[in-house]
């Protein structure tokens, strides 16, 4: 005899979601954002340790594959989407895959703090695009000054790594725009999970071609799962919970701290020291991003 859906007990996923919600509810929203920032940057540092074993392509393949698998199990998304929605999902996944490939290729060549600072120009550009306020012009000039400081006397900086970081920034800007469209066309994980699967399909062939059977070594698999959890699953969950409880403008200001956190994590975990001028450059981009986010129109 069939059982009506309303007569069933809570599903494992709903029970887990409720438990996670109660745990997150005890943490102030700003702390959730900061935990997410720390998580994603520690994940990037862990990923850099994998480069010697499976390369940058192999590392991003592991990250996206396991992130897609975890999100698929967690959300169990419906694949019955309209053609237009699938177009948005595929666009989101391709953008996400290319963004990660470019970022990890840059991370293999330049310090974590510098890579994230350059990449952060993408969302900053989106925040400033179309603005006619003179103050936003100042934030743009401040960010540009930070980039000049990063490059000034930086003969040891790999130009290819810088270009890949810029490419990741462009993809990040597109990711924000496509992600907004994804949010309009889908609910909860019905867009995120298949989008992550598309991103994995973009990256995995590169990883297999570069690393082959090294990808299935037990310690590599474990490290790859750790990177996926730290860099994707945990920060995405924390960010979603924080956005439920705080204005997007405040969230944007807090997220502006990401380049500085990346530089600190790079220093502590990877022993990547920056010159004083590069620290000033990072702070310039942080200040420009925070200023642009603070001046954005409130959406709450």
Characterization of the model:
The chain has 300 residues and is mainly α. The chain has one domain. The chain contains twelve helices and no strands. α3 (83-107) packs across α8 (189-211) and α10 runs antiparallel to α12 (276-294). The protein starts with 11 loop residues before the first helix and ends in a 6-residue tail after the last helix.
Please outline the helices and strands.
Elements: H1 12-25, H2 29-75, H3 83-107, H4 112-119, H5 121-128, H6 134-151, H7 159-185, H8 189-211, H9 218-245, H10 248-255, H11 258-269, H12 276-294
Helix pairs in contact: 2-3, 2-8, 2-9, 2-11, 3-7, 3-8, 4-7, 4-11, 5-6, 5-7, 5-12, 6-12, 10-12, 11-12
In short:
This protein has one domain. It has twelve helices and no strands.
Keywords summarizing the entry:
single chain, 300 residues, mainly alpha, 79% helix, 0% strand, globular
What class do helices, strands and sheet pairing give?
mainly alpha
Task: State mean pLDDT (0 to 100 scale).
Answer: 86
Low-confidence stretches: 1-12
Helical content stands at over 70%
Number of helices: 12
First and last CA, distance: 47 Å
The shape is globular
Spell the H/E element sequence: HHHHHHHHHHHH
| Major β-sheet profile | none
Number of domains: 1
Using DSSP, what is the number of strands?
Answer: 0
Q: What is the gyration radius calculated from CA atoms?
A: 20 Å
Kindly estimate the percentage of residues that lie in beta strands according to DSSP.
Answer: under 5%
């Amino acid at each position: 005899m069939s059982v009506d859906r309303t007569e069933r007990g809570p599903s494992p996923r709903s029970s887990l979601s409720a438990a996670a919600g109660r745990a997150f509810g005890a943490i102030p929203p700003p702390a959730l954002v900061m935990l997410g920032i720390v998580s994603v940057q520690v994940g990037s540092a862990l990923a850099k340790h994998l480069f010697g074993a499976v390369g940058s392509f192999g590392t991003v393949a592991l990250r996206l594959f396991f992130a897609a698998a975890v999100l698929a199990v967690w959300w169990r998304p419906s694949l019955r989407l309209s053609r237009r929605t699938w177009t948005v999902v595929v666009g989101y996944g391709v953008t996400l895959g290319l963004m990660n490939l470019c970022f990890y290729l840059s991370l293999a060549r330049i310090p974590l703090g510098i890579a994230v600072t350059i990449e952060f120009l993408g969302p900053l550009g989106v925040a400033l695009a179309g603005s006619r306020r003179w103050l936003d012009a100042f934030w743009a000039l401040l960010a540009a000054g930070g980039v000049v400081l990063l490059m000034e006397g930086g003969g040891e900086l790999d130009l290819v790594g810088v270009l890949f970081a810029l490419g990741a920034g462009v993809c990040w800007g597109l990711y924000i725009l496509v992600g907004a469209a994804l949010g309009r066309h889908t609910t909860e994980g019905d867009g995120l999970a298949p989008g992550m699967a598309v991103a994995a399909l973009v990256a995995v062939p590169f990883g297999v071609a570069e690393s082959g059977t090294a990808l299935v070594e037990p310690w590599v698999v474990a490290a790859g799962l750790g990177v996926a959890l730290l860099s994707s699953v945990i920060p995405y969950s924390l960010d979603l919970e924080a956005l439920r409880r705080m204005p997007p403008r405040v969230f944007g200001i807090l997220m502006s701290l990401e380049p500085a956190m990346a530089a600190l994590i790079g220093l502590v975990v990877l022993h990547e020291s920056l010159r004083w001028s590069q620290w000033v450059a990072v702070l310039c981009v942080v200040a420009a991003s925070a200023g642009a986010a603070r001046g954005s129109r409130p959406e709450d």
